Amino acid sequence: MKHVLRILILTSMVSGASAFAVLPEGANFGDRATSAWTEVKKKVTQTVKDVKQWWEQWNGGDKQAPEKKVAGKPAPKVLPVPQDPQYAEPVMNPADSDSTLQDVQQAKSSLKKSRSYEISEKGRPADPNLKVNTKGVPYVSQAEIKKFANVKSIPLLDVGREDRVSKADFTLPKLNWAAQSPKDLKPLPSAEVLNAADLKAALGGKFMIAGGERKLEAHFQPVGKVITLAQMKDFSWPQTEVKEVAEKPYKPLSPEEINMVAALILFSKGTHCHMVMGLMSELAQKEQTKYEALYHLGACADQLKMNEAAFKAFAEILKSPKHEEYASEALELLAVDLHKDAEKDFYQVVKKVNDWESLLTDKSRGPAYYRMAKGAFKSKHFNRTWQFATKVPETSDYWPDAQLLASIGYFNAGKKKTAIDKLSALNDDLDKKGYANNNIKALVKADLARMKFLHGNVDQAIPLYLSVPKDHGLWVQALIEQGWAQIHMDDYLGAVGNMYSLHSPYFKVVYQPESFVVRTIGYLNICQYGDAYKTLSQLEKEYRGWYGELGGYLQSHGKPADVYSTVKTYLQGKSTQDVQNVAYQILREAARSRDFLNAQSALNEKTDELVRYEGVNKKIKEEKASIRSHERAAKKRFDVQRGNVVKAMKDKELAKKMDEFKKLMKFEKELVIGYRFQLAILEQSRQGYLKFQDVSQKEVNQTKDDLKLQASEDLLARMKEMKDQMARVLDNNEFLRYEVFAGSGENIRYQVAGGKTSGEQRVPASIKPAKSLNWSFDGEFWEDEIGNYRSSLRSNCPQDQAMLSKGDNQ
């Protein structure tokens, strides 16, 4: 029993002696002592309060201060002067004589030099060996306390004794105080002092030393509502009648149910999907466990990034009328981790599910609506595109992309004004919030500029084209479209300057035949026919040869697989090297097409997915090897404990540990059984997984072949499109060449007839230049200035008639 030590100091008010005793916590001192001590404490406390109040009243003089009355409150209570004879007179009684201030000062000075008491008995000092703390209080060390248990009586601490004093009267001229003798002194009640025998009986044996002070730390759980005492008193437990439970016949689990339980236990651990997939793939073939197994199979496939297997499992759940239990979770996993190449299939599957929107959760709402919008757009269902896209919550990460998709859906559905308004709001919101995604910002600005251009707001389109980031793949196309907008706004110098930027050495690798057309038309409209003819010659020089080479290549390599192989060779080699006699600019542009990049990205993902299937089989084998190693170690420990049991049967000393040996042997036996069960489950799972892997890999390989064919067809289509584009540009080049010759002839005849042009006076043709310049590039290009050039040429057209009207250029 642990005891807490306390020091009880009993001080005699009469003799002045002090006694120290060591008492344990919870000691029983008798009812009489306890009652006496409680009564004394109560009386002393009350007496102190009374004396304090009496002294405050007497200290004010013979007359009491008038009572203060406060409106609305009773007057303060004044204690009556006690009528006990021993307090009938004040302690000091001043003499009845006249005194002055000087008399009081003399009395004060005399009092400082004398004492008002006399020492009747000299005291003695404390034991010099007595230990005291920093406050001067005596204490006993723990070593000394431990000795008390072996002695009959506890010695008192010699704390010494103070001097005994008695009163002393003193008299001064004209001032006299005399101490009054107290009357009827009565001792106060106090608890009886314990003797050694009582103390020893109270201690009752050994005791423990209390530790030092310790801070109390509260650890409370917060509660939602404070419970009052009244509520606690009125609280009662609800009582319900216990209904009799009808026993039903025991039905043992089927082998499929046992395997399902084992698979679910492994699945719940979160990191055993490689062990679960084989079991679940087999259970998915059984009608009793089909949909539960499909869900867990899809969840594991999703976790292991086997996207096609996950889509197949979840899609089968959603297609079935028995999908209620797992449909919501399946839709969530499918929408959140869906790959781009499956968005159209996702749309086709989900739209056939009755009331599919009721299956949405907070996590799946944004991704699911966005995927449905993308799938509808790819299926050319534009009304459904904006209907789904506008339902994506603003809190979703897909919200900006969904707003862009919605506006494109509106525009393709014929709601052009709504599309422009929605995209303008998104553009302002992205700029206001400082959105960091440059891709979405570039797409929004480029598409909004195109919509405004087509809707007739050309002046509003130009600043949007200018704001497309230069590091985005759309920038070159946006700059060319900006050139057309500038020509439409009669800003020919700006259009020429921007095309001049694209024809700088920075863009030597870029396929851009249309930019030469914009530049030529810009020169024609300011009657700079020499520069227009020079631009046409540059276009002929570069693109006429490319057109012939591409045509010859497509005749000899007209199959999609050939085109795919050529582009693949280019991408694996040097970026400025022609392949199969096709200019690298054309190959680069074909490889940049959006459709090809999406198909190739999906193709790369399927290639990685095939590798993941092999990784699962390898991991299962490693898991089996690890468990087999643990099983062998447990078997060895079992054999050791079994040997100890045999020895204990013959050895009396070892027999004392027989129970311990048997428990250890039983434990190791159960461990061995558990490991062997895991090995059996793993092998069963591996066999099931091998079948699942064979089927799934064939499906992935088929999808991979389809994607490769799609990518090849996209490349072939893009190359044919570029061939047709170059043919149109080159054919149009002949028309522009005619315009150059005709316009320059008219201009010459006009000037010969005395007409004036808008430009500065040209240098006569008879003046020969002092130096011949053999290069077309003058000056240097600065990267940050690209896209902001303006031509410094002046218009050389007649002042009263333009050589080409704006309508002729369209």
Provide a descriptive summary of the structure in words:
By secondary structure, the chain is mainly alpha-helical. Helices cover 56% and strands 4% of the residues. It is built from 26 helices and seven strands. The chain has helices at residues 31-58, 101-113, 142-147, 196-203, 229-233, 255-268, 273-283, 290-303, 307-319, 324-336, 343-350, 365-378, 382-389, 399-412, 416-433, 438-455, 458-466, 475-488, 492-502, 513-525, 529-556, 560-572, 584-591, 594-650, 652-655, 658-752; strands spanning 5-11, 18-24, 92-94, 117-121, 164-167, 170-172, 175-179. Helix 19 packs antiparallel against helix 20 and helix 20 (513-525) runs antiparallel to helix 21 (529-556). Mean pLDDT is 78; it is low at 1-33, 61-73, 75-97, 759-782 and 800-810.
